[in-house]
Amino acid sequence: MQPQRGSTNRTRSGKAATGGSASAGAFELQRSTPAKCSGRRPRRPELTSRGACDLTNAHSLRSTVRTADNLAYMRGLPDASIDLIYIDPPFNTGRQQVQGVAADRFDDYWPGGVRSYLAFLEPRLCELHRLLKPTGTLYVHLDWHAVHYVKVVLDGLFGDTNFLNEIIWDYRTGGVNTRWFARKHDTILSYARQRGQHTFHVLRDGVFRTEGLNYDEQGRPYKTTKRGRLYFHPDGPALTDVWSIPFLSTVSRERSGYPGQKPMALLERIIRASSNPGELVADFFCGSGTTLVAAKRLGRRYLGCDSSARATAITRRRLATTNPAPG
Ligand SMILES: C[S@@+](CC[C@H](N)C(=O)[O-])C[C@H]1O[C@@H](n2cnc3c(N)ncnc32)[C@H](O)[C@@H]1O
What we know:
20% of the residues lie in helices and 23% in strands. The chain is built from six helices and 14 strands. S-adenosylmethionine (SAM) binds at residues 1, 19, 69-70, 88-90, 106, 258, 260-262, 285, 287-288, 290, 305-308, 311.
C-alpha cells in the first residue's frame, strides 16, 4: 500500500487472511502456458434463445455493491461476463492500514509472508480470469512488496503473451529517505483476457516536449522539417505507461476517509482506456468505491465487493451522490 498522508500504520499481532487455498504454483517460474485454476466449477452465463449472453437478465450483473468475501462472491458469477476488472488488494505491507481517527481500517498482514499472501490472492486471480470476457482487461494495483511475485502468477494464469503493461503510478508525496531513494510509486499490471481482441482506446494528455514546436492558425502543433510541416496530434501526446497523478491529500475534497483510497483521475483513465459506455466494470476489493464511482460517472455499469461493511457503506454513500458526467 502506498503511504497514506495523515494516516497511521500499525503492525498487527498476526491474524491470517481468509479464503484461498495454498498453491505451490505461484513459484513455478517455468510455466509458459496458462495455468488451470482448481476449485468450484464455474457457472455459465444465462443464454438467450439466440445463444448470446443475456446480461440484463442476470440479476447479479446489474450495478451492485456487496459486502462479502470476494472469493465466495466471484464464484457465484457467470463466466466471461465482465468487460473490465480493476483490483487494489492489500499490498502485503505487514501492517494494518488505518486512516485518521482509526474508525476505518483493513488488515494487510499475512503471518506466513509472501507465500501465504499469494495463497490468498491466487484463487481470486483465477476467478478474475474466468470472469473476464474475451475482450476484457484486468488491472492489478500493487507496490514493491509483492508485485514481482504476483506478476509471475498472472503470467501463469493469463499466459505471458496476454501481458499488456506495467504502469507506474508516480505520486510524489512529501518525505525523504536518507538510506535509499524515497519510494514514490505504485505498480499496476494489466493483462488482456485475449490480446488482440481486447478493448483499448489511446488516451492523450499533456503537451509535447519537442523543441521548436510551432502552432498554425487553427492552433495545431507542428514542426518545420526539410520536407515541410510535420503535424502533431492536437490533443497532445498519447499516454505512456508512466502516470503522474497527484496523491489524494488530506484536505482533498475527494477524500472519503477510507484507508488506501485511490484518486478518481487514476480510475477514470483506466476505465476510459479499457471499456466502452454501457459496459460492466468490476472491483472486488472496492474499498471506498473509487472504481465504481468513476464507472458510474463515465456511464458504465459496475459490480463492487468488499469484506468490510464500513467500506461498502462509504461506497454506497459516494455512489448515491454521483451522476453520470455530461458528454
Ligand atoms: C486498498 S483497499 C481498496 C481501496 C480502493 N481502491 C479505494 O479507492 O478506496 C483494499 C480493500 O480490500 C478489502 N479486502 C481485503 N480482503 C478482502 C476479501 N477477501 N474480500 C473482499 N474485500 C477484501 C479491504 O477490506 C479493503 O477495503
